[in-house]
Amino acid sequence: MNKATVAGLKEFKKKVETRFPLDILIFFGSRTRKTQRKDSDIDLILVSEKFKGLNFFQRVAR
């Protein structure tokens, strides 16, 4: 993973945490395995106590 990606993830995490506290931010997929292509996305799982009891669509709306 290059420095720009790491910096972008750190900035993303900061912005997310202004809206709700994160318990865990999981980074996975081809970029973690260093098998990404030019068109690969970034795969993340956001875990927060604030999501407890909300369905998928309610979580996305937040």
Task: Give an overview of the whole structure.
The chain is of the alpha+beta class. The protein has one domain (about 5-60). The protein has three helices and two strands; from the N terminus they run H-E-H-E-H. It has helices spanning about 5-15, 30-35, 55-60, and strands at about 25-30, 45. It has a two-stranded antiparallel sheet. It is globular. The model has no long low-confidence stretch (mean pLDDT about 90).
Topology pattern, helix = H, strand = E: HEHEH
User: Uncertain runs with pLDDT below 50, 5 residues or more?
Assistant: none
**What is the number of independent domains?**
1
Mean pLDDT: 92
The tally of helices reads: 3
N-end to C-end Cα span: 29 Å
Strand content: 15-25%
Structural class: alpha+beta
Detail the topology: elements first, then pairings.
Elements: H1 3-17, E1 24-28, H2 30-33, E2 43-47, H3 56-61
Antiparallel strand pairs: 1-2
Properties at a glance:
globular, alpha+beta, two-stranded antiparallel ribbon, 62 residues
Question: In a nutshell, what does this entry contain?
Answer:
The protein is an alpha+beta fold and 62 residues long. The chain has 3 helices and 2 strands.
